[in-house]
Design brief:
- This protein is α/β, with parallel strands linked by helices.
- It is built from five helices and twelve strands.
- Strand 11 and strand 12 form a beta hairpin.
- It is globular, with a radius of gyration of 18 Å.
- It starts with 9 loop residues before the first strand and ends with a helix.
- It binds cytidine-5'-monophosphate.
- The site of cytidine-5'-monophosphate has 12 residues, from helix 3 and strand 9.
């Protein structure tokens, strides 16, 4: 069994991947399955935490005992996370949030015509993780005391990860090496957790539950 070391803690987890609408039937999305975020939610509940799971487009059963808030776009995810972190102890941003969205959404389905289609003009989405770090730095509520991000990197994993940890102002950054049958849509994950003001923690390839438990070990330690 797991320790009840997160009893009395309120944890917010984002999971899945956002969809940015082009028109009522089309979107720009990503391949995130939500498996890692849902594993984080299940393990946190098992360790006694109160969990709010902000879920973006995930086709998995609701984790028993968690409060699930469904969102579609990055803007909706941002609003739901900011709402949920009020009074929370930690946030773990496991969701793949779209960096860009179409500037305009067509109110009706874009028609196929004989002419070439219009290009889709993209604009930047807010970086929610960085915003939480900025809020904490500025003492601007709401922000949680512990902030955890995820990052998928293909090369220079450590150097890129350390720069991202600092840039986003988080306590922990779970850096996944993507490719080689790992990460997206697979039951296994391997990662290195970068720790602000500490040594990196190497997490060997294994079930996403094991990675989740190791993240909670580090979060519980920082909450103590
Ligand atoms: O910069 P990058 O997308 O690699 O950062 C990934 C981390 O930042 C994840 O924790 C993700 O949830 C978060 N993120 C965010 N808002 C964005 C993009 C990413 O919170 N617009």
């Amino acid at each position: 069994g797991r320790p009840a070391d997160l009893a009395g803690r309120h944890l917010v987890i984002s999971a899945g991947g956002t969809r940015e609408a082009i028109d009522p039937v089309r979107f720009i999305g990503n391949r995130s399955s939500g498996l890692q975020g849902y594993a984080l939610a299940r393990t946190a509940v098992a360790r006694g935490a109160e969990v709010t799971l902000v879920s973006a487009n995930v086709a998995l059963p609701d984790p028993a005992g968690a409060t699930v808030v469904r969102v579609e776009s990055a803007a909706e995810l941002r609003a739901a996370v900011l709402d949920a972190v009020e009074g929370a102890d930690a946030v773990v941003m496991a969701a793949a949030v779209a960096d860009f969205r179409p500037l305009a959404q067509s109110g009706s389905k874009i028609k196929k015509t004989s002419a070439e289609p219009d290009p889709i003009h993209l604009v930047k989405n807010p970086d929610i993780l960085a915003e939480l770090g900025d809020r904490r730095r500025e003492g601007l509520k709401p922000y949680p005391p512990v902030i955890v991000g995820f990052a998928a990197e293909t090369d220079d994993v450590l150097a890129n990860g350390q720069a991202k940890l600092a840039r986003k102002g988080c306590d922990l950054l779970v850096v996944n090496q993507v490719g080689a049958g790992l990460a997206f849509g697979t039951p296994d994950n391997a990662a290195v957790v970068l720790v602000a003001g500490g040594e990196p923690v190497e997490i060997p390839r294994g079930p996403k539950e094991d990675l989740a438990d190791m993240v909670w070990d580090l979060v519980a330690h920082r909450l103590r």
